[in-house]
Design brief:
The structure is a homotrimer. In chain A, 66% of the residues lie in helices and 0% in strands. Chain A is mainly alpha-helical. Chain A has two domains: 137 residues, Ammonium transporter fold (Orthogonal Bundle); 147 residues, Ammonium transporter AmtB like domains (Ammonium transporter fold). The first copy, chain A, is globular. The two termini of chain A are 28 Å apart. At the A-C interface, helix 6 and helix 7 of A face helix 8, helix 14, helix 15 and helix 16 of C.
Chain lengths: 328, 328, 328
């Protein structure tokens, strides 16, 4: 039972929620979206990654307080969801995924120790780094078959054709909801609604900020003329959702100033999303949540400069410590 | 008046000069070069970036000593000059530039906090990082139009044709002077002379080392057969100029040993300039001042190893603290 | 004599062995392989790099204890071997190599100071970083001629043809031995045997783990269908060899748990080797030992989490401190 509780909290911690019910609803959202897309292996991969990652943390004897909060589950969950999303569902894929999920826990400890130096958490970077290695490696390994990676290509400037979108209201709203679900590599607007509910169970601020993040990012992506089919798939929303929640109510306390700061961070996340789409084109891999990680790090690192007294120091002593500061 | 003083010092700090007159002369040099090239928007962008970056620092309530020295102005100034250099002069460009300049100040705090761990300043890396994001992002955003980026391409080995140069004395001298002005993304030898004068106003060492840096880099680029038109445009000079000044008289005290060390750093900056030209070719963005930043970091980080007692610890407590140690 | 002793230890330290006889045998292995391939300049480059790097460290007045252990020799040795491996043997190449070897020592101090923050050594990253700069730079410099770099290209997925291998026993065994020798950029199975003997002179654990590392990596590369000619050249083995030795007996004490941990690290090194092959394809440079460095860092950084009391703190105070903890 304790192991299940830790794993459910691990699912919730992808969105910074230390709450097993939130985690359960998130897992349901993942299954709904994966089954609907006939990609059940993505949901199974997520659960396998979550369990292997958490078990690896237990075997390695990590800090118990962090473990109990699910801080060793969320990155391996994402590694486990990402591999079957981009790589074909074959036996060797699951060997690859299992090793990858275990290594994600080692990387969680490693990156956590580096960023502890500046009082900043590793966020989902252990997932991003490990999965980038696995996806780049897939190109060279004949027994790992491609599903939706690449083709690698040189970046070219956007055109009226790439920026074309259908501007109906239903298009825009479902794109925004898919932006929420894409945090978990799921492009399904029903899943997006379930995730917003899952957040509200634990923190109404988090739910509201997630919604605000995808609204701002989607509207801005339309205004700047980003790729229409990417917007529709929710691919311009998910990193912005995470940045909005992280900066707006998790690592800072919500206030007028903080919300403005989080808004600027959310807008910049959109630009970094576009930037990494360009930067990774020649190597044929997706950005994953790197835009969120990079912008949130850049906006958290100045914390000590504008908060003269550390108003809410983490006490868990864990490597990640990203439990929410605020719940409504 | 105080705000203007801070901004002028900010312009001077691109070259490590905490001096408003140096900053004023530098702004004049930027306007001279930009107007001569019918690119007045570059000079306007520089001023807009400088003012927005400094104002953002004030709003965020940064360390006052660093603010007064102009340490929050120089990176946004460069962001503001770079955007209209590479991106077409349209309304959305200015929205992009304004957000970018404000974010450059956040990034200045972030990078400053990281590198403070090792007693090393952020240099112009906040400009480089923020502007790389904005230029990479421009490829994906239809409302941001290209001016002089790319095309992205796979690197190929230099040939006799690419290395061809006109070896007249006037060619070589004006190339060297453009190397100085390219610190500010200006390719104009008159601007180069004004900038050398601007430096001499505050530090004859800095002015002499800037001249030496561009002379060494240009001659070496010719000797190794670097791209002839890049040499002519000053693009092999500007990072070397900054390295020579930084290592030769700002972060170390000038001496025979330090000048030799700075010379090796300047030579290696040329190689890193060539390296980053290759590395960034497939993503179609310029190196900006990254060669200077990387080499100067690598040559400053060993400081504690060969200076047994820290001979001149910064006392400002600021994030950047790169006021010159030496002025003649 | 003391200078020669330091240099021989420097050669041994590529494999973490603080032993002049090990270093001498390694140099013999390098000469055997280089002469056999009619590439004597690679062995000469290795010696020149070793001597220049060590001499630069003496001139800079580095920490004496680290110097005596050869910790400033091994990265420049590799820089010196790599340049003539990838760049044609012309006069300017040796200017390039000499400056590169000296700078490698500066970079050794710089990277050492950064990673000291987390109690982790710089490993061969100073070699990797400096040599990457020099090889990328070679593309732009007409007087530095290509030998075996590139061509740069976009990554494509492996096929049955690329994965094809001749599965004879002699093929597999010689591939494994070339995996050992490729640590020094030498593809020669006799050199591989000499290096295993050189390790055994100082530490039977190190020799056994090096052999285990190349066996695991080669078999796994075959199982996953990596490029057949790369496997045959030993290019999937060398980083795994270094990871196995580093994690298995140098930075952790050998035990059942540590050997399992080192095994996972070695397996992941294979995936990272494949990943960096993909990532560096568009810029046309080799991975060098980066897969070993990245994985070993990631697997050493959690050390403090699972070793409650630091069981063997380095006392040398040096920047690298990677003398072996265990010798049989």
């Amino acid at each position: 039972m304790r192991f299940i509780d830790i794993n459910l909290r691990g699912a919730g911690q992808v969105m910074f929620m230390n709450n097993p019910l939130t985690g359960l609803l998130i897992l349901i959202a993942i299954f709904v979206g994966a089954i609907d897309a006939s990609m059940t292996q993505v949901a199974i991969g997520a659960v396998v990654g979550l369990v292997i990652g958490t078990a690896t943390a237990i075997v390695l004897g990590v800090d118990d307080a962090s473990l109990k909060q699910g801080l060793f589950g969320f990155s391996p969950l994402l590694t486990g969801a990402a591999i079957p999303t981009f790589v074909a569902n074959k036996p060797m894929t699951w060997v690859y995924l299992d090793i990858g999920a275990a290594v994600t826990t080692v990387v969680t400890l490693a990156i956590g120790n580096i960023f502890k130096t500046w009082g900043v958490p590793a966020l989902t970077f252990p997932f991003v780094l490990t999965t980038w290695f696995l996806l780049l490696g897939a190109y060279q390994l004949y027994r790992i078959h491609n599903r939706s990676l690449g083709p690698a290509g040189l970046p070219a400037f956007a055109t009226a054709a790439t920026a074309h979108v259908d501007m109906s209201a239903s298009y825009v709203v479902t794109s925004m909801l898919r932006g929420v679900s894409q945090v978990f590599l799921i492009g399904n607007w029903v899943s997006g609604i379930i995730i917003l509910i899952a957040l509200a169970v634990n923190s109404r601020w988090a739910s509201a900020l997630a919604a605000a993040g995808t609204i701002v990012a989607t509207l801005l992506a339309l205004a700047f003329g980003a790729n229409g089919s990417s917007i529709n798939a929710g691919l311009y929303g998910f990193s912005a959702v995470l940045t909005a929640v992280a900066l707006g109510c998790v690592f800072y306390q919500p206030s007028a100033g903080v919300l403005l700061y989080a808004l600027i961070g959310t807008v910049f996340t959109l630009f970094v999303q576009a930037a990494l789409n360009t930067a990774l084109a020649p190597v044929g891999i997706p950005t994953l949540t790197a835009p969120f990680v990079l912008v949130t790090w850049l906006f958290l690192l100045p914390k000590r400069d504008f908060t003269p007294t550390p108003h809410h120091e983490r006490t868990s002593g864990g490597v990640m410590s990203h439990s929410p500061d605020a719940s409504a």
